[in-house]
Structures are given as C-alpha cells and as structure tokens.
Amino acid sequence: MDLANIKMCNKNTALLSLLFVSSLLSVRCGKSPGDTEPPTPPPAPFRVTATTLNNSNGTTFISVNPKNLRLSFAFNAPVDRATTASAFTLKDANAQSYTFDIGYDKSDSVVLITPSASIPFLSKFTSLVSANLRSKAGSILTTNVQIDFATSLDSSRKFPAISDDELLTKVQQQTFKYFWDFGHPVSGLARERSNGDNNLVTSGGSGFGILAIITGIERGFVTRAEGFARMQKIVAFLKNTAQTFHGAYPHWLNGTTGAVIPFSANDNGADLVETSYLIQGLLTARQYFTAGGAEATLRDDINVIWNRVEWSWFRKETAENQLYWHWSPDKTWQLNLPIRGWNECLITYVLAASSTSHGIPKTVYETGWARNGSMKNGKTFYGIQLPLGPDLGGPMFLSQYSFLGINPNGLSDVYADYAVQTKNHAQINFSYCVTNPKKFYGYSDSVWGLTASDIQGGYKASSPSDDAGFIAPTAALASFPYTPTESMKALKFFYYVLGDKLWKEYGFIDAFSLTNPWFASSFLAIDQGPIITMIENHRTGLLWNLFTSCPEVKTGMKNLGFTAPYL
C-alpha cells in the first residue's frame, strides 16, 4: 500500500472513531441525534388562594360593620396592576356600583379593596374579581371569585321620640291608609296586596278592612259620615254584584265586576273560611251603625248577606259532621279540605253555629273542629304549656284572625281556656325568637314574630317549626292583647331603629330579614288588618265588644259549649 493510501485509511479510521464516541455519548444522555431541546413548561394557573374581610377568612359574611371595611384577595402570583381597575367590582343587591380604592401587598400578590365612601347599613354587597385580571407574567385568572357580605344594622334612632300612646295611634293611622286610600275605587273592598293586580280584591282581607274602617272612625282618621259612605259602597257591592256560591264568597274577586278570580286551579268557587272573616267584619259593622234611616238600611242589607250563607250545606250538603273549606260548580268538592282545629278557622264554626238560617249543631263542632279532643296539645315549650294546636304553636295568625272579633279573655269550653291559648301561643313565638336556635342575625326580644307573610322569592307560613329567618311585623303587633310588653318593645324597635327600612306609606312593610338583609316591597290586607284591629282591641276592646254583642253570636257560642262573661 502506498503512502497516500495509508494516510487516507488512517483519516477514515479516526473519523469513524469520532462518530462512534459521539454515538455513545448520545445514547448515554438518552438522546438521539435528531432530538431538540424540550419546551419551557407553562406557568402555574393564575388563581385566588385566599379571600378575607377585615382579616377574617371566607367568602360569605353577615353583620359586617360598614365602616372601615377592607377586603383582600390573595393570588398565587403577582398581579398586573394595569388590569385591576377593570377586574374588580363592588355592587349591592340592586347591581348599583360603589367606588373603591385599590391597594397592594405581598409584592403585588395581594389586592386590597377599600370602599371610597360609606356604604349603607343592612344591605347586601358582592365584591367580584373577574377574568379581566392578569398576572405580571400575562396569565389569565382561571375563575371569577367573589366575596359576599351583608352589613349590620344601624342602632341609631330614625324618628323623634313620642309617647307610647301617640305611637300606637300613629301606627293605626298609617296602617288605616291601606284600606282607606288604597281601597278599590269601585267596590270599596280591600285589595289583596299593594304590589299585585290592583283589580284583585280579597274577601277575608275586606272583612279585616271593615274592622279597620270602624277603628278609623272611632280614632277620628275619617268622619263617621265618610266611613258610613264607604260601608254603603262595600255592602251594596257584596249584596248586589259580587259572585257567591250557596251564599259564600270566593277568596278573590274582581273589584269592578264582582266575578270570581280563581285562587288556584281547583279553588274557583266558594271559600267558607274567607267568607267567615268577611261576615265577622260585616256583623261588627251592623252592631256599630245603630242609627235609623240609612244606617237601618245598611243593617238590613248586611243581614241579607249574612242569612244567605248556607253554612250547613258545606257539610257536603249536610251529609257529614264537619265543614268543608271549598266548593265550586265545576270542581264541586274536589279540593276535599275539611276545616279542622286547632287553627285560624274557629270563627267559621262559631258563625256556622250562630246562623239562624243555615246553622250547624254542636256535634259538627265537636267531631269536625275539635276532632273529639284530638286538637289538644298540652305539651310544654320554653316552659310554657300550649293547650291546643301544633307543636310550638304554628304561625301567629292561628291565634289572631278569629280573635279580631271573638274576645278570648274569659272564654273557655271543654277543650281550652282561650286567654291561655292565645297568650301562650304568642309567648312561645316570642321565646323561640329570643332563644334563636338557628342563630339568625337580629332575632331578639325586640325583633320577633313568625307568621304567614311574603318572604324573599315567595310567600311562607313561617313558624318556630318552619323558620327561614323572616320576621313579619304583624305577628308581634297583632299580638298586643296577648303580649303587651313584648309587642311594645318590638314596635319601638321596628319604628325607631328599623324605621328607615320598615316604615312606609301604609305602615310597616309585610316582612324583613336582617340575616340576609331583605325588606319586602309589599303590604298585604290580611297582615295590615290585624295590626290596626288588635291594637284597638288592646286599647279599648272596641271590635271585641261590637262583635260579641251580636245576639246570634251569643246564642251560637253558648250552643257550642262556650262560656264567657260577655255571653
């Protein structure tokens, strides 16, 4: 082999050796000759790691002092300050925006939100951080995060102090406006509610409204002539225009035409219980307007209405020893709801027994209403014995609606002492709210009263056994005859402390919650009526004295086995 070939061979051998070593290095490093460098891993998701309000951790807070308020949002990376202004909001429950100052901490990984000006008491707020927020590295916030909080009450007095007697009169006068100023212009009857169909009137609520008108005359809110003229309008409409079924009225009526407005699909005819509330009011008016002439004519018209109610027919055409709540021409007895005690319907049996045209015997009361004694309770709640009805008493209206006219003081039968029943029911309702087992914010000896009312998102028969945190002023205020001290304390708190939220054009709004601040925009006839009426019964016994002066009522109650000084 010549020298040139030897040199070439050596060069090739060296090259092969280099390639071999390079190959070994690649294998040892786990790479192949075609591999590239791996991509840089993405940054961790940008997210909130903690939320606090005034140094307390969480996302939901109640009873927050609105002064010196500070919220903080902690993130897992520094924020881009240029994006915070558009990412954070502070709004109330009505979506009204509030201005705030933004601060930073922990190398911009914590954002501090401080309201620029005072925010109101007893209001709900939401502070939200949205996906508009970016980290300094440019990452987008993974999810929206918010802090929800409700501010505490302001304990300052909202109105000048007046005497207790003046306050009672003021409440009665303002509540009276619901039935007088807001009464239906054609029929004079009470509209069901202030925030509904203004042509829809309620038969039972109108009975309460009649009691309110009598009170208004006696208190000088209107003259006797004005009140009498309104009663003439009401009675003429009920006698000549309003639709009836075997003499009984429907729950709801058209205030212009008198035609039934169905309460539900199968409740499109007579409602005997609502009719009894109406007749309770009418008989009270009959006993009030005692002069001759036009007042005598009014009394005669009321008697026509009263005597044509076929109470006994509502025993399913006299076939059963109990009364039934509903009947209609096309649904007949389909609802099939017997009226059984203990509840708000005692007045129905009293009037049925008092009717001289379509009366019921005592056995219907004993078998249907009292269920042969099964309506008794006798248990003790909060150290208070409850003679009748459901455990813990049920909603307060059970002890109020029938006793707008029936005086429970001194009244008894074989089943109960009704002064004890009504007072103990109210005391249990009060004691439950003071004890506050569900820890609702604001419940106290000044904020109490559970009964049927509007609540947030609907309507509910609230009671100690079914409490969602909504107080109805009517529960405590219509209990004045039973719990005068506790009711006055509630009245003063409702008016002086919560008055800026509760006190409106027709008195106190229907209901409220301090836990999750909410205030009804409504007034209901069946809630406003007991307030003015029972305050008057507490003060003078006016409506009790008038209703129980009816000779038919005296006879009917005696026949059922009741005893009382006024019978």
Automatic annotation (TrEMBL):
A Pfam short name: Glycoamylase
Domain Glycoamylase-like: 338-551
InterPro entries found in the cross-reference section: Glycoamylase-like_cons_dom (IPR019282)
Protein name, UniProt field: Beta-glucosidase
